[in-house]
Each structure stands twice: as C-alpha cells, then as structure tokens.
Amino acid sequence: MEMDAFKGRNSSIGLRPQKVSGLQDVPRAPMAESEERWCHDIGREQAANKPLLKTVFQTPLENLEPVLREDIQKIWDSVPKPEAHKETPLSDFFNVEVVALSSYEEKEEQFKEQIASLRQRFMHSIAPGGLAGDRRGVIPASGFAFSADQIWRVIKENKDLDLPAHKVMVATVRCEEIANEKFAHFITNEDWRKLDEEVQAGPVSNFGKRLTTILGSCLSEYDGEATFFDEGVRSSKRQQLEEKLLQLVNPAFQDVLGHIRWGILEKFKASFDKALGIGEGFSSASQDWFKACMTQFDEECAGAIIEQANWDTSKVRDKLVRDIEAHISSVRTSKLSELTSLYESKVHEALSEPVEALLDGANDETWSTVKKLHRRETESAVSGLSSALAGFDMEEETRDRMVKSLQDYARGVIETKAKEEAVRVLMRMKERFGTIFSHDSDSMPRVWTGKEDLRAITKSARSASLKLLSVMAVIRLGDEPDNIEKTLTVALLDPTKNDTSKKSITTSDPLASSTWDEVPSSRTLITPVQCKSIWRQFKTETEYTEANRRGNNWLPPPWAILALIVLGFNEFMTLLRNPLYLGVMFVAFLLAKALWTQLDIPGEFRNGALPGLISISAKFVPTVMNLIKNLAAQGEDPPAANPENRRSSNNTSSSENPPDHKSSSKED
After folding, report:
1. Bias regions of kind Basic and acidic residues — which residues (predicted)?
2. How many helices (H) and strands (E) in the chain?
C-alpha cells in the first residue's frame, strides 16, 4: 500500500471559483440573508481565504514534507498494535513519499507529464523505481488466485474480522427475544408452579414425567416460532434456553431426591427394627433390607429423571448409603450393648447372692464351690453370648474381646462380693461365734446347766470364726495353694505353738506384714496385719459373752435387788393404798409378761447384754403391734356360749403361739 500526498504549488487560481456565464440571468430562489452574504463573498480576497491559500501553496515542499511525516508518525504511534509489533517502525509496513504536482491551470503540459510519470509508477509498482519496487517476496499475477484464497481463509479464521451476515444478525436478535419470552412464560406457568409447590410440601409421584411434559411444551413453542431463522443460531439459542430452564428446575429435582432419600431411610429403619424384633439375624436383616431399599431408591430416582437432562443422582445415593450404614452401626452398637448388659445381669444374678451365701458360711470347701459356680455360670453366659453374636457377622477379634469382657465381668462380680464381705468380716465372725457358742452340735439352743466345758465351747467358736477370717483373707479362684489358715491358727488361736517352734523368740511376727506369702496383692482382701487387728477386736467384743456365761446369771447381784426394795418402799406402799394403781399395775404386769414371753428375753441375753439389747429393740415394736392386733381381734369375737366354745377358743389360742409356751415352759 502506498500513501501519496499531492500538493499543487502556486495553484491558488485553481481554487478560485470560476465565473459562470449568464449566472445573473438565472432567477434565484429566495435565500436567507446569511446565504446571500456567503454567495457574495465568493471570489473576494479575504472572505475566500486567498492569502492563506497562497501561503500554503507557495510553501516549499522541503518544509511541508517533515511536517507531514511527523503527523503520519504520530498517527502510527497512536494505533493499537499487537504485542509483538509495539516497537515496530512504520517503514516496515508502509512507504511514505510526498510528491508535488504543477498547477494544471498555469502549467498544464508539465502537469500532464508529471501525472503520466506517476501513473507509470503505480502501474509498474513492483518494478525497480516503482512505488513497491523495494519489496521482497512479491507474488506474481499467476499466483494471485491462490494468494487471495489464503488471505480470505485467514480473514475467516480471525474472529475479529468475522462479521455475521445480515440474516444471522436478525436470527440472533429474534431467537434471543423468543427464548427470553418463553423462559418468562415458563416461570409463570401454572403447571410448573403447582408442581414446584407440591415438591416443597413433600414427596411427588411422577415428577420426571410431569416436568418433562412441561419443559417439552415450552421448548416446542420456541421451535415453532424460531423455525424460519438460521438453523445454527436457532439451535444455539434453544440450547441456551434449555440450560436456563434446567437450571431453574434443578432445585426442585434436588428436593425430590431429598424426599426420596428421607423416605427410603425411614423405611429402612422401620423395616430393619421390625425384622430384629421378630428374631431375624442382625447381619441378614441389615443386608436384605439394604438391598431392597437401595433398589427402591434407584427405581424412584429413575421416575424423577427428566428427558431433557442427564442429571447425576450418585451423590444423593452415596449419602443414603452413608446414612443407612450409620444407622446400622448405631443399632449394632446398641444391640451389642444390650446383649452385653443382658448377659452381665444374668451373670450378676447367678453369682452375687450364691457367692454371698457361700462366703457367709465359709468353710474348707467355700472357694472350691465358688470356683465351680463361677465356671458353670460363666460358661453358660459365654455360650449364650456367642450364639447371639453369631448373627452379627462380626470379626473374630471383636467377638473374642466381648467374650473376654464377659468373663472378666463374672470374675469381677465375685471379687466385688468378696470385698464387700471382707469389709463385714468382723460382724460375720461375731455372729458365727455367738451362733456356735449359744447352740449345741444339733443347732439347738444350748441349755446352760453349769456343767458345760466353756473353754472347749469358746475355743470351738473361735476356731470357726478364725476359719471364716482365713477364708475371707484372699480370693481363691485359681488353683494356687496357700498356708494362710495355718499361719492365722498358729499366730492367733494357738500362740504357744508359735513360741515353741524352731524359730527364735525374737523372730518377727508372721502377721506383721502387708502381704501374704506367694499371694499377689490383687488377690488380697485382708492383709496379715489387718487380720491381727480384726482378731484383737473380735476377742475384745466376745470376751464379755464368755465371762457372762461363766457367771451363769443374767440377774443383777443380790445387793442391787435389796437396794431396789428399800429405796422403792414408799412407792410400794402408795400402790397398796390405791387399788386403781394396783389395777394398772396388774395390766402392766400382764403386758410385760406377754412381752417377756413373745420377745424371749432370757434367750436373747444368752449371747450377751449388748447383742440382747439390740435384738430386743429391733423386735419390740412389731411384738407390741402384734399383741394389740390379737387383743382387738378377741374383743370383736362374740362371748363363748358354752364350755366347749371356751375350750375351743383356748385350744385355738394355744395353737397360735406354740413357741411362746414352749419358751415359757423352758424358762420355768
């Protein structure tokens, strides 16, 4: 491309308006005053800017060319260019040349010659001396068709130069208007609004089919109105409309999936719990109902899918799977906890009271019996638990851990009960001492005649109490032997053997220790030093019973009886002077006699004063209430009509309280 500037030199006459002959004779239409003044100014010196034009045209070319080139360079600098050509000079793309021509009016021949020369330069532009003679790689005319084809291909591929055809522009505007109109109409569509409201309220059946129909109708209307426009534009705008519609209805679709997921989850929970309630295995019930519910979920999701979209339901499905698995895990944990609690309660019930009874009657066979009981009940509980766990399809390690926990619990029940009994060992020892001391070998209450060998009775009672202490000293659930009983017998019951042993008298006390030989502290209930302290307290509290029985008299001494008579003489005389007092005293005597017989006071005091008082205080109120009830019942009965009725009543009365009469006669 060549840029040429043509400048006439001294050609001011050429710009001057030429005179037209007969111009004054032509009638003119009326014109405004300003227009008339402008017409009158034509040809005038100043009004036509003749001095300025003369100055311009008479200026030398050497002065004009730099100014023109500077202006062109400024234009080139302000033109936006690609990044690669920001610093490229103008000369790489254009040849700028300034040419001046003579005045046509003054130098016509010279003007024509210059024009002919300039014409030749254009016609032979690629020849040496031509306007484009300095270019390289010029394409000859034979390759013009191919070159033009390549240039056009570049233009078509350049998006900035790809101007749409008129019909494409019209189709773009009109199809977009139709699409916007159909989208707005869809938003206000009653069928869609009703369907959306139903989805917000809860589960909707045939959602996919109904929404497919509504969307299809909207798109069909678009197709009908845009059918005569350009196919490419029509399809593009239809796709955009479809995307907007799908984006609008997608939240409703997600809500439908949420309703389906929630409904399936609730169904699984109810069905799974019901299956477990009727005794179905945990593993089989969970697997069967999981498969059934997931199949139903897939079917309902298929019914919610619309034809216009390929929406993915895998995320909601995965969420449902996680929810079901979490519920299964929660139920499994709950059921396993229930099973554990169930069998622990069975073990506790089977061991607690029997072990307490065995330890209460401690003897040589106590711990062997406890071990047998422990083994039998533990094996029974473990067998039941293992059978119950078989339906859970759990790992062997987890099952073994639960079985081990139950076994440890069973052992813990025995150890806990043994520790509780060990705390009460002193009380148990005193009870055993009192029982053996006050009863004979046939477990009958002992009748003291004064001929009994109290030393032998006391020793027997203490030996039995010491046996209980030795049994309660440690836990013996294993097969490890110990010599605790022998140690306690030598150190406490028969200290003379300890003194005459081969050991020196200065040897340390075998009970002056906090541990037993060859017995770990975890099995120890009562340490040796604690046994010694308990035995000392036991002897102190039981010596009174022995001393009291040695005196063989529970009545106060004679001097105390004499003092009571002397000091109470005045009160005795007062009673004799007032018969009412005697009546009251007589009634009080009868009540006291009845209480004496019912409470068996002499028998209670055989074990000592303190135990007797405690026992009597515990039985006093119930005995008084029983006497009052009997008196009230006898007062309501009609009086006896003949001796037979009286005799029958006496027989009945005597039969109701045979132990009292027996006790009374024995006391007498």
Report:
1. 658-668
2. 25, 2
